[in-house]
Structure formats: C-alpha cells, structure tokens
Amino acid sequence: MKQSGSLHKKEMQKNGLHKKKTQKKTMQKKTAQKKKQPVLHVPSEWLYLALEKGSLRDIYVYLKEEKRWKTEYWEEAKVLEISIPDAGSVDLEALEADSEDAELFDYMEEQGMKAVYAVTIMPEHYMDAEVVMRYIVEKAGGMFCGDTDDFLPEVKAIQDMIHKTEELQGDK
C-alpha cells in the first residue's frame, strides 16, 4: 500500500497535479498578505474653518517650509494642493460663508471661526491627510471638520483638545 501511495504521488507530480495544489496554497497565502487594512469611515469632503479671514497664501507659506509634502498654490483659482507621497493629496479651495447655509454659519459662529474652505481628501489615505490637517491647525489655527450634517469628525489643534479635556475635568 505504501508503494501505491508513493506511485500515486509520483504520478500526480508527473501530471502536474501535486504542483497545482501547492501553487493554490501559495496563492491563497499571498492574497491574504495583500489584503489592505480596513478603510475608516471618513468623508472625502471636509471643511477647514479659519480663525480669521486670511488667504490660502498664508497657509501655503507655512506648508512650503515643510519638506514632507509638495505644495502648490493657484492664486487665481484660490486653490491649494498639498501632495502627499503615495497617499494622494489634500486640496483646499476658498468658499464664501453663505448666510443661507444657516447650519454652517451657526457652527462657524459657535466655534469662533471667520472663514471657510472646502477640503477634499482620499478617505483611504485619511491617516496621512490627518497629519497634514494637524500641521495646518497647529501653524495657522482653526479646525477641520467633516462636511457632514453634524460636522464630524473634527481635527483640532492638540492645545484645543487639552483645553477641552481640562474643562470637562473641571466640571466634575
């Protein structure tokens, strides 16, 4: 019986059947390794709310010092593009705060913000885009929020987060 098992194995190898089984297992392993991490549920459309009515040029000045990203500013179009290597870009475009958009107008007022910019990111590269957003709010102030019904998620300066935590702890 052992002999027929060996013959059977040799016959399978000869006909390429054994090889196919091995290749199948190897391909399954490679496919499992290539699976990406799950994409966080973040919007692709965001808003950057600025503390004062400035220009994208001011933000551009902060970003052009930073060598991690390539930054381009088109003054006529009022567009700022921050290219992130291997992770798309973060694009900002000037918007006029429309008093007809009562929810946005109220939210800006509540947050003490004076200007609004439309922001587009690639959700699958959110972690990289968030680094850019945090850099901007640390240098220029303001905040980022999702262009959603509840303006969430938010990206604020770390100092703002520390201040809010202290306020919450003081309320106890």
Rg, Å, rounded: 26 Å
Count the DSSP helices. 6
Largest sheet: 7 strands, antiparallel
* Beta-strand fraction estimate: 15-25%
Structural class: alpha+beta
**Spans where pLDDT lies below 50 across 5 or more residues:** 18-22, 29-37, 161-165
Distance between the termini: 79 Å
Measured as a percent range, the helix fraction is: 40-55%
Query: Could you give the order of strands across the largest sheet?
Result: 2-3-4-5-1-6-7
Question: How would you sum up the global shape?
Answer: globular
Order of helices and strands: HHEHEEEHEHEEH
Average pLDDT, all residues: 79
Number of E-state strands: 7
User: What would you call the quaternary organization?
Assistant: single chain
Explain what this protein looks like in three dimensions.
This protein has 172 residues and is of the alpha+beta class. Helix content is 45%, strand content 21%. It is built from six helices and seven strands, in the order H-H-E-H-E-E-E-H-E-H-E-E-H. Strands 2-3-4-5-1-6-7 form a seven-stranded antiparallel β-sheet. Strand 2 and strand 3 form a beta hairpin. Helix 3 crosses helix 5. It is globular and about 35 Å long. It starts with a helix and ends with a helix. About 11% of the residues have low confidence.
